[in-house]
Amino acid sequence: PATLGVMGGGQLGRMFVHAAQSMGYFTVVLDPDTSSPAGLVSHQHIQRDYLDTQGLAKLVQHCAAVTTEFENVPAAALATLAATRPTAPNAEAVAIAQDRIQEKAHLARSGVPVAPYAVIENAADLATVADSLLPGILKTARLGYDGKGQLRVSNRAELASAWDALKHVPCVLEQMLPLADECSVIVARGWDGACVHFAPQRNLHRQGILAVTQAYEGNLPPALVDKAVTATKKIADELNYVGVLCVEFFVLAEGSPESAALGGLVVNEMAPRPHNSGHYTLDACDQSQFDLQVRTLAGLPLVQPRHHSAAVMLNLLGDLWVNGCIPPWDTVLALPGVHLHLYGKLQAKPGRKMGHLTVTAATAAEANAVALEAARLLGIEAF
Ligand code: ATP
Ligand code: MG
Ligand code: MG
């Protein structure tokens, strides 16, 4: 049987491994962490750094094809792998998604609107920032996730001290936009350019971290749905992307000047991999985002997935486990349509994604009602 490899051993890698194994593949995970969630369930776990020559050679030796679950895997490592094995996504696409400056330039090339922004690379850039970008959010160009590496600033003095706090690394300053909603679109694109998608899911963030995803018909204004899917496919095409790609969008408050100027919908950022907002596809769709990742990687046919149940996903952060508490699974799992996914992480920390829970139901109202009850039992803020 063929073996598939994945760079990165986090929860996304773990769910990739599950999907690959259920289709009969052997799996190899490359991750330096000895107890990574994916490494724990993979047939093989290479515990090496991403750029370690021997680790990469071993991956190539064992695997028919390699993907990534970790967007900060060095693009150079992907380029090395791609020289001898089908590797998806391509190193260039990952390099672009790793750097907000390159990412924004790429989005402009694709003709999709982004938040007005300025590149901040030195003190002179700070001085020339347009007043219209304040209040804004200063974001490090690289390595940020879950709202880490970004600071909200309301005036020039705060901007200057935020840049100090971020240690003068290259940043972008984005105008703070009036958001009505956030959503994301996940597509899978094959080696031949054929592309399938999931309908946009509606996302609620708290403290910069995804908290809730609602996935059902009617979750977003219908006019936005086609627009978001078309933009995502355009972005994937422009990157000559192979694999699963997620694009996050801001839905701007109707009637605001920003909405009028930018056309109602702007791209926030993209992730060159399956995405937390697509975890509901495991339980609510006939093909999950991880099934599609396996199919793209293995060169198998892509068939438009069918979303068969209304779904609401709640992220389970480490806060639920503090002081050695164990969440009340017995009462939560007694609710109808609850699917619990825990990632096998050995240590809970506040804000750390430990698992998620998806409620599936015949109707959106039912999925929301059960998810609200689950949130109440778990002590998660209502949505
Ligand atoms: P992820 O974990 O999704 O990669 P991240 O750390 O890259 O997150 P962003 O997606 O840039 O962070 O921002 C996190 C959240 O902060 C957004 O989902 C949104 O709620 C809010 N936000 C970010 N930029 C803006 C903006 N320009 N205007 C208004 N809100 C914003
Ligand atoms: Mg991000
Ligand atoms: Mg984000």
Automatic annotation (TrEMBL):
EC identifiers of the protein = 6.3.4.18
User: Does Heme show up as a keyword for this record?
Assistant: no
Q: What InterPro entries has UniProt attached to this entry? A: ATP-grasp (IPR011761), ATP-grasp_carboxylate-amine (IPR003135), ATP_grasp_subdomain_1 (IPR013815), PreATP-grasp_dom_sf (IPR016185), PurK (IPR005875), PurK_C (IPR040686), PurT/PurK_preATP-grasp (IPR054350), Rudment_hybrid_motif (IPR011054)
Chain positions recorded as ATP binding sites: 100, 139, 144-150, 174-177, 182, 205, 268-269
What's a GO cellular component annotated to this UniProt protein?
A: cytosol
* Annotated Pfam families: ATP-grasp, PurK_C, RS_preATP-grasp-like
Q: Family assignment?
A: Belongs to the PurK/PurT family.
Identify this protein by name. N5-carboxyaminoimidazole ribonucleotide synthase
Q: Which organism is it from?
A: Rhodoferax fermentans
List the taxonomic lineage: Bacteria, Pseudomonadati, Pseudomonadota, Betaproteobacteria, Burkholderiales
